[in-house]
Amino acid sequence: MIPDKAPGEDVYQATCDLRKEAHVPSFEKYKELYLKSVENPEEFWGDVAKDFFWKSKHTGQFLDYNFDVTKGKVYIKCMEGAITNICYNVLDRNVHDKKMGDKVAFFWEGNEPGDELKVTYRELLKQVCKMANVLKSLGVKKGDRISIYMPMVVELVVAMLACARIGAVHSIVFAGFSAESLCERILDSQCSLLITADGFYRGDKLINLKMIADDALEKCTEKNFSVQKCIMLKHLSKDGSLLPEGSQSPPAKRACSDLQEKQKERVKKIRPIPQVPWNPEVDLCWHTLMEEASDECEPEWCQSEDPLFILYTSGSTGKPKGVLHTVSGYMLYTASTFKYVFDHQPDDVYWCTADIGWITGHSYITYGPLANGATSVLFEGLPTYPDVSRMWEIVDKYQVTKFYTAPTAIRLLMKYGSGPVQKFTRRSLKVLGTVGEPINPEAWLWYYNVVGEKRCPVVDTFWQTETGGHVLTPLPAATPMKPGSAAFPFFGVVPAILNESGEELEGPNEGYLVFKQPWPGVMRTVYGNHERFETTYFKKFPGYYVTGDGCRRDKDGYLWITGRIDDMLNVSGHLLSTAEVESALVEHEAVAEAAVVSHPHPVKGESLYCFITLKDGFDYTISLEAQLKKQVREKIGAIATPDYMQNAPGLPKTRSGKIMRRVLRKIARNERDLGDVSTLADCTVIEQLFQNRCNTA
């Protein structure tokens, strides 16, 4: 599976030599460690575990599992019997044991240039303890689910780690999602409390978060579920003057901790924000609660397989799946992937541009970096605001050494050429990373040549919400690079490529990407629905974890992700379910049927192309199209807004009534070679659909 030696042809080698200090200095060393991790996982992961604190050691097998649905219930257990706390390991251990209390944990960079904050590990620990005590005072206990709906602020990290400290399960919802999406996630995990903020700016655009949150809570009440309390952070409205009269608004005074004093002194260009709704029976002010809380809180000691968080990802049935990760395995895996994939060194300044509302932010902004005692940049804004040089300005400002972003952002910035990049030196950069979707070779080469000036290795990482961390990735000093390839498996991961019959394919080949055994960070279940977990990931090919992605292995053994095989789209690095979008469309009174397929997009990678069949009595108009796009935004979020819609009086279906999406994808791309259409019930719809095509040029 792993070649004897790395290929010497058709590959790129960065001129920046990391080998002397690298954790994995050569391909030979990578192969040695990989074989150890697969053949003797107990010893390999046991060595990783030695760096962490355990209240008690594990008693059984290091990894115990069943991937074969024909042999009983699917399960994965890691370090069963061990007791620890992940918050203690990422904060207390660094402050007290490693004497890193004064080290910067986060450089926070706000939406507006000049709006900034520096937070040390000691300050972060105090704030987390305060919020943990606040949650306990509100009756939150181990195992309770807490919904978090916040912008990219330090307090978001505080909230999630406070949950982890007391054994509560955080469920973070991306702040770009709609009230409907937030409500759906709160209901599914039965969250007892919501933590949110008044609002935030994303570039020039105001997001009135509290208003959306209130709408979500109202929808929950309509569905016979009431969230008892809502904690609101005053991020934009720094005093009570923006709250309605008589609303018993929280006092303007901020808590007098080091962090809060720093926040007072921040240079802030506060723009107008509409009045913030306030319900004194439900709403509580973050700042008032924190002012009264103690900054000491004993952690709740958790079993290794206790739940850590639920994070929702789109499902092919349309209903999002609550992916559940547990304490110990996730901690070990995010810590080790961060250390090796970014070749973390003590003096690094690391910047992941993702949002914490996605798994990338969970694993590689919060848990992985903090577990390694890293200093990170936490960015609230956009790569193009106030201008397209913003990212490179931040790189120089904080002397960023390791930079991790999405192909979507790279393609977006490519449009503006090399000029905005070259306004700044970027001499501090040592490793570049990509995440979220396969990167096309053209974008890879621009990133490597222009941003990294051929000095920096590019780690093109493949993983999923479900995997918890990187599963296929180059390692900076060890792996010769091929533009667009995810290269080789990470330690402990055993991939295979299957054909439609479930047979493993050897040598150069293409098929379904699966994994043959678990690694510590893999998901444990779909929250509240283990049957769906088994059906989605294990039923198609018993004995394997099925990723839902296609994969190609080349002659040198390098792996290339070819895209989703199921009915999912990857838009700007965010996985969307076609069924979920179709469901939102058909809720409109005019729509009889809808089919959604992917269409290539030069920046986003994929975009949504929608075929709309109307009910009798309705006409397809520009106004109706605008209504449908608005409905999708409200039901799912702006990220799911369709790029293209076309009138489809009929859809290509088999005689059994199944929509032939393969044919629709061809039509969307204006490709006349449709392949075998012998099972099509009505061939006349094809030409009509081609005639009604949107202009996608």
UniProtKB/TrEMBL annotation:
Residues 580-658 form the AMP-binding enzyme C-terminal domain. InterPro entries: ACAS_N, AMP-bd_C, AMP-bd_C_sf, AMP-binding_CS, AMP-dep_synth/lig_dom, ANL_N_sf. GO terms for molecular function: acetate-CoA ligase activity; ATP binding; propionate-CoA ligase activity. GO terms for cellular component: cytoplasm. This is Propionate--CoA ligase. Keywords: ATP-binding, Ligase, Lipid metabolism, Nucleotide-binding. It comes from the Eukaryota. Residues 30-90 form the Acetyl-coenzyme A synthetase N-terminal domain. Belongs to the ATP-dependent AMP-binding enzyme family. Its EC number is 6.2.1.1, 6.2.1.17. CDD domains: ACS. It is an enzyme of class 6 (ligase). SUPFAM superfamilies: Acetyl-CoA synthetase-like (SSF56801). It catalyses: acetate + ATP + CoA = acetyl-CoA + AMP + diphosphate; propanoate + ATP + CoA = propanoyl-CoA + AMP + diphosphate. GO terms for biological process: acetyl-CoA biosynthetic process; lipid metabolic process. Residues 98-525 form the AMP-dependent synthetase/ligase domain.
